[in-house]
Write a structure and sequence with these properties.
By secondary structure, this protein is mostly helical. It contains five helices and two strands, in the order αβαααβα. The protein is globular, with a radius of gyration of 16 Å. It starts with 5 loop residues before the first helix and ends with a helix.
């Protein structure tokens, strides 16, 4: 018998894959940040303060969120 639910579960897992960053990467992000306030985080990286705290504390965030944050960091680095 075919397991109908398995493919959907794999897609859901991939969509919500959780990852964390190292201390060095966090420090590089922090140095480019104007202010670690909700407004400063959103204006700079388009992330919430909760996401920032997770990154700071070494906790995982969604891969998609981290990919978007890294892209924003690279874009800001090129404009300097």
């Amino acid at each position: 018998m075919r397991d109908v639910g398995a493919p959907a579960e794999k897609v859901a897992q991939a969509r919500f894959e959780m990852v964390s960053i190292g201390h060095d990467e966090f420090e590089a992000l922090r140095k480019s940040l104007s202010a670690a306030t909700a407004q400063g985080l959103y204006e700079t990286y388009r992330i919430s303060q909760n996401t920032w705290y997770k990154l700071r504390d070494g906790k995982p965030v969604k891969r998609k969120t981290l990919d978007q944050l890294r892209a924003r960091y690279r874009a800001l680095s090129r404009s300097d």
